[in-house]
Design a protein that fits this description.
This protein has about 325 residues and is mostly helical. It is built from 13 helices and four strands. Helix content is about 75%, strand content about 0%. It is globular, with a radius of gyration of 20 Å. Keywords: Cell membrane, Membrane, Transmembrane, Transmembrane helix.
Length: about 325
């Protein structure tokens, strides 16, 4: 009887993984279609859109958003959300710029550990204090943003003598920008983590059906904590990259990444209800938003109207990917 129960659970898990892959195909194809449409429309609006220089700009700045969105994907896969990424990015950007003159390359691990701790605190707020992730991360995001202001109420610039420490991010390898290489490395690592580790598979399991995951022996608390830790580390990495690219930190630089990271995740086909999506969905969602953002600037769309377009993209992504079977009442 026990062997039959275990076999049934494993069979259910296999069917769940197959259904998840099939379900994620449709929104992914829609995103690819949107990329083509935007590419054609922006090219008609300005011939320079497809120039090598502009494509390089899209890829370079898209790599930064990709890292933030890949981190955001983890809380969303378990059915939560991380609204503190903007505050973490801002805090780390200021911290990194201020630490480099004092400890040099040591600023990199210190800032990454800061993101890890902040992510773990978010996880504890959800798993131990039992506060919904939306409220918990909204609160911690506000606290962290205040800390960034306390460190420096205005943008802080890196000294020219410290530029050498920033070449880890600003340099190139065989003509390829290190930011792009870094984005690829993060993408590959998180793909392998989700695909080949038990914790990665459990993240999908918990997001798909938390009760079934608990009944099958999955460590729910640890899995959810890991999801927020990954988000925190990725946000910290984005803060470091932005500081290097801009040669300075800013206590508000991460604000736009809250909306943009969520948009990149959901437009690519990762459902806000959890359990469906993945790194490739985020990759194409990020590419679409990067093309859209760059194209709107190239053809001269008003900056304030651009946020309305981003909001429309989030609505579209949720409409396509939202699993209504998991929610009997839409609130």
């Amino acid at each position: 009887m026990e062997h039959k129960s275990i076999g049934s659970t494993m069979h259910w898990g296999a069917r769940l993984r197959f259904a998840r892959r099939i379900a994620s195909v449709k929104p992914l194809y829609l995103t690819i279609a949107l990329i083509v449409i935007v590419g054609v429309a922006m090219t008609l609006g300005n011939d320079n859109f497809l120039s090598l220089y502009n494509l390089g700009t899209i890829v370079s700045f898209g790599a930064i958003l990709l890292i933030a969105a890949l981190g955001q994907m983890f809380p969303i896969l378990i059915g939560g959300i991380d609204l503190s990424v903007g505050g973490t990015i801002s805090l780390v950007s200021v911290m990194f710029t201020m630490l480099v003159p004092r400890i040099g390359y040591g600023a990199y691990p210190v800032c990454l550990v800061t993101g890890l701790v902040l992510g773990y605190i978010n996880g504890l707020m959800l798993t131990r204090v039992k506060i919904p992730s939306f409220i918990a991360t909204l609160g911690t995001g506000g606290i962290v943003t205040s800390l960034a202001y306390l460190l420096s109420p205005r943008p802080v610039s890196a000294a020219p003598s410290d530029y050498g420490y920033l070449d880890v991010v600003n340099g190139t390898v065989w003509g390829v920008n290190n930011v792009v290489i870094l984005g690829f490395i993060v993408f590959a690592l998180l793909f392998a983590f989700l695909r080949f580790t038990r914790t990665g598979r459990n993240i999908y399991f918990v997001g798909s059906n938390i009760k079934m995951a608990w009944m099958s022996g999955t460590h729910i608390v640890a899995t959810r904590n890991v999801a927020f830790v990954v988000s925190g580390v990725c946000a910290a990495l984005v803060g470091i990259v932005i500081s290097c690219v801009r040669f300075g930190g800013d206590p508000v630089v991460g604000t736009s990444y809250v909306l943009n990271s969520v948009a990149a995740v959901v437009v690519g086909g990762t459902a806000l209800t959890g359990g469906m999506g993945g790194v490739f969905n985020v990759l194409f969602g990020t590419l679409f938003l990067s093309m859209l953002d760059n194209g709107m600037n190239v053809i001269g769309v008003d900056q304030y109207f651009q946020q309305a377009i981003y909001g429309a993209m989030i609505i579209f992504g949720v409409a396509v990917t939202f699993d209504r079977s998991k929610t009997s009442v839409i609130k």
